[in-house]
Amino acid sequence: MVVGVCRVAFSLPGNASLKGKRSIVRRIVDRTRAKFNVAVAEVAQMDSHRSAVVGLAVVSNDARHANSMLDRISAFMAGISEAVVVDRTLEILHTEGEAAPPIAAISARDPEAGAGPDGMSSSERWDDDDF
User: Fold this and answer.
1) Domain co-membership, 56 together with 110
2) Are 58 and 4 in contact (CB under 8 A)?
3) Nearest C-alpha neighbor of 22 from the set 58, 4, 47
4) Which domain holds residue 12?
5) How many Å separate Cα 33 from the centre of its chain?
6) pLDDT, tens digit, for every residue of 94-128?
C-alpha cells in the first residue's frame, strides 16, 4: 500500500479577518474534496488570517499513481483565485508487511471468544442489527 501526503501552504492576500479566512479555506477544502474524493483539511496556522496550510492524503497501490494524484490536486488548488500557493511538500509512504485479518473473519457469536476487556462476551456487544 502506498500513502501520498501533501502539505500546501497558502497566502491569503487582501484578507482582513479569520472569518474571511475560514470562508476561503472552506471553499478550497470543499472543492478539492468534491472534485477528487480525497482526505483534505486545514492543518496549521489556524490563528493567522493571512495564511493557511492544508493537508491532503491519497491511498494507492502504486507510488507513481499517488504522486500523479497529488500533483493534479495541488495544481487544482493553485488555480483557485482567492489564495496563492507559497509552498508545497509531498511525501510518499510505502507500507509493507503482513495484512491484518479482515474484520468479518472475527465472529460476533463465537462462544469461544469469551469475555473481552469490558467483561462482556462478543455476543453481548453486538446485535444482528449491527451487521
Assistant:
1) no
2) yes
3) 47
4) 2-94
5) 10
6) 887 545 444 444 444 444 444 554 555 544 544 44
- With cell 479569520, the residue in question is 18
- Let me know whether 20 and 83 are in one domain: yes
DSSP label at 121? B
Q: Domain containing 42 — which CATH number?
A: 3.30.70.1120
Q: What SS3 class is residue 131?
A: coil
Cell 500557493 maps to which residue?
Answer: 85
One domain, residues 15 and 43: yes
Q: Provide the residue type at 74 as one letter.
A: S
Q: Are residues 42 and 106 in the same domain?
A: no
Q: What is the 8-class DSSP label of residue 39?
A: E
Place of cell 491532503: 56
DSSP sequence for 74-100 = HHHHHT-TT-EEEEEEEEEEE--SPPP
Phi, psi values for residue 32, rounded to 5°: -65, -45
